[in-house]
Design goal:
heterodimer, A: alpha/beta, Rossmann fold, 4-stranded antiparallel β-sheet, 10 strands, 32% helix, B: alpha/beta, 6-stranded parallel β-sheet, 5 helices
Amino acid sequence: MYIVVVGGGEVGYYLARVLLSDGHEVLVLEKDRRRTEFAAEELGEVIVRGDGCEARTLEEVGTGRADMLIAVTGDDEDNLVACQVAKHKFNVPRTIARIKNPRHRLLFEKLGIDATVSSTELILAHIERELPSHCLIPLLKLRGGELAMIEVKILPGSRTVGRRLGDFRLPEKSLISLIIGKDKDPQIPSPDTILEEGDQIVALTRSGDEDALRVALTGLG
Amino acid sequence: MNVIIMGCGRVGARLAGILDAEGHKVTILDTDSYSFRRIPPNFAGEALIGSGTDEDALKKAGIEEADIFIAVTQGDNRNVMATQMAKHIFNVPRGICRIYDPIREEMYRELGLETISPTRVGAQLLRGVIGG
C-alpha cells in the first residue's frame, strides 16, 4: 500500500518505521525544516518537508494514488484538515487522524474521517490499568467504534463473588468472552461459571454500555 | 441576531463593534485577554477568554442559541475546525469562516461553509486599484 503520513514528530517517525518494515510504500510530510532534516538521517527520502494540509503539497507527493493518509501532528485541527483535503480533493479511500482532545472524536466521525486515535485516552487507559482500585479497562474498539472490548476486574469484597454467571443481567448484546482467574488457566465461561475474587473478565459490549456492564459484573454502582 | 465571533484580532474586534452598534447580541472569544484591548470602548456585548475549538468554551459563549458563528483567527485550520463544530455539533444555522489559502477556501465552500479568502479578495481588489 502507498501510505502518506502527515507529521514527522515522534509519532510520525516511529509510525513510518513500522510501516516501512511492514513493506509499505511510505511518505512523511513535515512542516518544520529541522525536524525534517533530523528524521531524514534515519528515514532518507521517505520524509519530505511540506505542509500536509495544502492541496498542492499533497498533490506533489502523489496523494491521488495513496491508499491511506494518516495524520499524526500534535494539532487536532491540522489533522482534521489534512484528512478532509485527502478525502475531498484526492479521494483517498481511508483516512486516520490522531486526536489530542477525546471530545473531538464525534466531530471527526461526523465529518467522515474513517478512524481516530486519541493519544490522551490511550495514555489514560494504560495508567488506569495500573491502578489497583480501578475495575474497568477499555481494551479495544471494534467495528468502527460500535463495539467495545473491555476488561472488568472482580475486586476483593465484590458482592458478585460466588455468583453464577448465568444469573447476571447484562446489558443487551454483551458477551463474556474470557475469564482469567487468579493463578488459574484462562477459561471460556459458561452460564455455570462462578465468579471469584481476582477474576479478570474480558467482555464485548456495545459502545456506551461499558459502565453498565461493569456495574452488572461487580455490583459496584 | 445572536452572533459569536472567534478571534479578537483587528477584523474580529472591528466586526464585533459594527454588529454591536447595529443592535445585535455579540459574543467574542479569544484565547488571549490582551487582544480584547482592540474592542471599541462602547461595546455592549460580551468578551470571553476561551478557544473556539473547545466545546465548553463554545457553550459558555452561548453557541446553542447562536444564529451565526464567525471564525476569524489567524489559523485557517483552527477556523475551519471551529466552524464545522458550530455547524455539525451545535447546529448553528450559519457558519462563516476566514481561510487565507484559496484552495482550501474553495473546498470548504463546496462542503457547505460560508468562506472568505482575504488572499483572493485582496489580490482582486489590488488588481482593480491598478486599473488598465
